[in-house]
Design a protein that fits this description.
With about 55 residues, the protein is mainly alpha-helical. It contains three helices and no strands. The protein has one domain. Helix 1 packs across helix 2. The protein is elongated.
């Protein structure tokens, strides 16, 4: 990942330069990936019964 791409991801996530003192590159990458997954509509969701069987 290049520096400009990293900074673009930070801007897209709303992370300020001050916040970057507390975060690593990996944490920002994970946050961006999870943010992308938030809009995914999962076709099958586990129920409580499924979790109990697990």
């Amino acid at each position: 990942m290049t520096t400009p791409l990293f900074l673009l991801r930070c801007v897209q996530m709303g992370i300020s330069i001050r916040d970057l003192d507390l975060l690593t590159v990996g944490m920002v990458n994970d946050m961006f990936c999870e943010n992308s997954n938030d809009s995914y509509d999962y076709p099958i969701m586990a129920s409580q019964e499924d979790m109990d069987r697990l």
